[in-house]
Structures are given as structure tokens and as C-alpha cells.
Amino acid sequence: MAITFIDVVNLLINGCIEGLLIALPTLALTLVMGIARFPNAATGDYMTLSAYAGIGVQALGTTSILLAGLGAIAAGAALSIVFYLWVFRALRGRAPVASLVASIGVAFFARSMLTLFVGHDQHTFAIPLVRAWNFGGIRLLPTDLYVAAVALLAMLLLFAMLHLTPIGRQMRAIADNPDLARACGIRSGRVLLALWATVGVLCALGGMMFGIKAVVSPEFGWELLIPAFAAMIVGGIGSPVGAVVGAVLLGVASELSVPIVGPSYKIAVAFGLLLLVLLVRPRGLFGRALVAR
Amino acid sequence: MTAYLIAVGIVALIYMLLTIGLNLQYGYTGLINFGVVAFFAIGAYTSALLALHGWWLAPAFVAAIILASIFAYPIGLLSLRLSDEYLAVVTLGFSEFVRIVLQQEEWLTKGVQGLPGIPRMFASMGVGGYADVAIFATLVACNAVAIGLMLHLVRSPYGRLIQAIRDDEVAVEAIGKDPRRLKVQVFMLGAGLAGLAGAFYAHFITYLSPDQFLPLVTFYVWIAMIIGGTGRTTGAVAGSVLLLVFLEGSRFARDWIPGVSEVQMASVRLALVGLGLILFTLYRPQGIMGSRR
Prior knowledge:
Largest interface: A-B, 45 and 42 residues
Distance between the termini of chain A: 48 Å
Radius of gyration of chain B: 19 Å
Distance between the termini of chain B: 41 Å
Largest sheet of chain B: none
Helix content of chain B: over 70%
Radius of gyration of chain A: 19 Å
Oligomer: heterodimer
């Protein structure tokens, strides 16, 4: 089957939408990397658990996607803060490896509680079914536009917080130079609490949007971890703008690869892109030259 | 009962090989390998496929070791340019990549159907009984050689250098030693041990499929190493025995607690591995036997 121009456009659109969704967990990863300074392997499972919380809200009998979203956000923030207070706070000051290994533990523990009490079944959100708009072969799903808009809005709010509010400024100060930030009287405890709450909200939104676009299963968040890592590294670690750009690039690249290598090799494309960037430009597109070793 | 204990012992010894390899990489050299299962899988499939094509087992085992080490070479090279946490991400990505290749390339691996009928070791002695004792004895010998090799390495000037790399790489360079070659060699050595473990696994279980090589296996090995104490030679022995007691024990727990399905038990296992990673990192980073450094 020959690939027409229309097909390419469709893949591009899909790739951009996927990229905008991956950008949410990528932002969560990059914020933790920049401020708490370790790769948080539990990011994907925070998404999964939040999405299940959203499904749980709908199971109570409402079809409101807004209520489900609020439930997911509350669950995501709570989960993220609980594990910060229990695990990651105690590991501050130790080597990043300790937090990294512990975050794998958090990922497994959180997912196992889900499968133990909720089971392994796949779920979908109850959303009104709508037909795709068709512009001469270029298909647009209103649902896709909706999830992409939510993701964009979340990013705008995040950037507004980072650049316009005192707590955001303090976050950036700690990311930039923790010692100097402390010398200036920034209390890192409060900032970290805000950071982990933000991470929880970002994961929850990412989980919800992926859940709306596809299905919710216990493994789906973990499977997005490698693509999110790849997007973070492509964009440059610690750079929120880079995270978004990296995620969109990754989304487009993996969609465009589908006609060539088939859909199951998406993760492999992410991995290949990650390797390429690490070899050619280890600091990523927007990373600073001096990355903390 | 004896037959059962020998079978469990064989699996414990296979994990012991993996743990020794990881301990060499992480415990002594500080290379974070989150992709242990990838080299295990490469070894298993290499040996199994060669044996199915009529090779004798001995050369097939050697090929498994060599191929696993060869795959470790580029990743070891990459580790020279990356800080520790990046290597963790790259190796984790690599293990998922390998698993997807095993799933997709059906012409080679028969995909998710799996490879049945792999020749058993010591098949001329029948199945079970003496054949298992012989496998057990071979594994004990291999582990003894691996431990001996490791002790020798650790006590040699080479080993002191390896440990110095973990503690302070810049100092190693300052005294005019090249840590780079050593790092790559250690990474390949550890991967070779994992490949050997994979070959034993393939010719003991006699059936391979991609879902035997989930990232969970990697973290079984990590937990075995952490329990035993990272960077301790005897730790790998104690850790892998305790791991098998736990894995097998959880199987028997079902007989005592009625109404627990195998699926739920898998969740419990995942929960305990996660909890183990969290609690050991928090409270006993030196393992159960070691004293705080």
C-alpha cells in the first residue's frame, strides 16, 4: 500500500496530539529531575493510578468527565505527596541512585496495590461518541482536539506558575542553584511540597487524557515511561520548554515510523531517538551545557 | 521433595549468577544496570536457538556468553559519556527494546508463541533425578568460578581500580589510570555472566517466551543484590537464596490462605518487591548483613 500525502498529514496530526499528551508526564519528569535531581521512575504509575481514580469516579454513576478529571487530579496529587513525604523526603541528600531505586519500588508498589484491589481489567471513560471530521481525507477527531486543548491549557498554567508566581520563582531558583537559593532564604520544604503536588497534577492530567484517547490498563503508564524519558532527554533535562518540544518531536517521529516499522516498534523508535541524542548532543535541544553530573 | 528442592536450588543458582554479574557492575564499579534481563534474554535465546539448530550445548553456552557481552559493548561505551542515572534509563530502555524484538521478530523467535522443546541439559540422564543433580552441580561449579573470579578481581590491582572508579573517578584519572576501558570491560563481564545464566535457564526450563523477560526480573536481581549488600561477595549468595525463598514461599502461601488466586499472588509479589526496594533504600542501604560504611 502506497503512502499518500494525506496519510502523512494524518500521521503528523496524530503525532502532534500524542506528543502533547506525552509532554505532560515529561514535564513531571523534568521538573523532578531539575529540582529534586533524580529520574522518577514512578511517573508512569502515578498516571495509571490517577486514571483509575477517574474511572472510579465515573463508576459511582456520573458521566461527567469534569468530575472524573477532578477525582483523578486529587488522587494524583495525594499519591505524589504521600510518596514524597514517606520516601523521597528522607532520601534527600543521598546519592540520586537511592531515590532512583526507591522510585522503581514506588512504581511497583503503587501498581501492585491497583492490580490487587481493582484487578487487571481494561477500562474506558464514558464519553459521548462523536464522528471524526473529514476534510478531504484529513481526519480530525473532536475528542483528540479536546485532549490536546486540555494538555495545552495545563502547560500554559504550568508555565504561568513557574514564571509569574513566587513559588514558581523559588522552584526555578532551586533548580538553578540550590545552595544559592538556600542562602537567599528560600525554604525548600515548602517548594518541594508544591513541586510534588504539581507533579501529581501533571501525571493525573496525562493519565486522564491518555485514558480518554485510548484505554486504561494497569501497565499503560509504565509503558509510557521510556517515551517520556526519551522526550525529556531530547528536549534537554530540566528544561520545561524542551520537554514540550521533545515530546512533540518524539510523538511525530514515532507516528511517522508506523508505516515503516509497524506500530509495535514505537517504543523502539523512542529508544533509538534517545540514543541518538545522547550520542550527538547529550544536553538535548534546550539543555544547558553544564548538566549536573 | 528432594527433586523439588533441587529444582528450586537450580533457579536460585541461576539468579545467583545474575546477582554476581550485577554486583560486579553496580556494587563494585557503580554502573547502574537496569537492563539485566536484556542480557539474560539474549543469552537464553542465543543458546536455545543454536541448540534447536543442532548445536551441541557446550558451544551454544559459549556463544550465549559471547553474544551477551557483545551487546553490552556499545552500551558500556555509551556509559562512558553518560552520568550514572542516564545509564540506568538507557539500560532499562534497552531491556524493553530487546523484549519487543523478541515479540515481533517471529521468523527468529516465534514471537509470543514462544520456543518450545529446547534440549534439556544432560538429557541422556533422563528428565529430573540425576540430570537435575548434574545441572545443579554444574551451576554450583559455575557460581564458584564466578565468585572466585570476582574475589580475584576485587583483590587484584585491577579490582582496587574498579572500586576506586566507583568512589572517585576523577582521582583515578589523576593517578594516570584509564577508567574508561575498565568500565566497559566490567560491564561486558557482568553481561556475559547474565548470558550464561540465560543459557542455563533456557536448557533447564526448555521453553522460552518474551513475557518471561519483563523488567520485573531485573529488579528481582536488584533486590537480591540489595538484600545481600551491594559490593559484598557473599551478599550475592545470601541475597539470591533469600529471593528464591520468598518467590517460592509466596507460591506456597496460597495453600495456607484459601481464596487467593494466582493473579492476586502475582500482585502481592510485585508489592513486596516494591516495598523491599523502598524499605531497604530507606533503612538498610548496606543490606541485611553489612555494616554501614
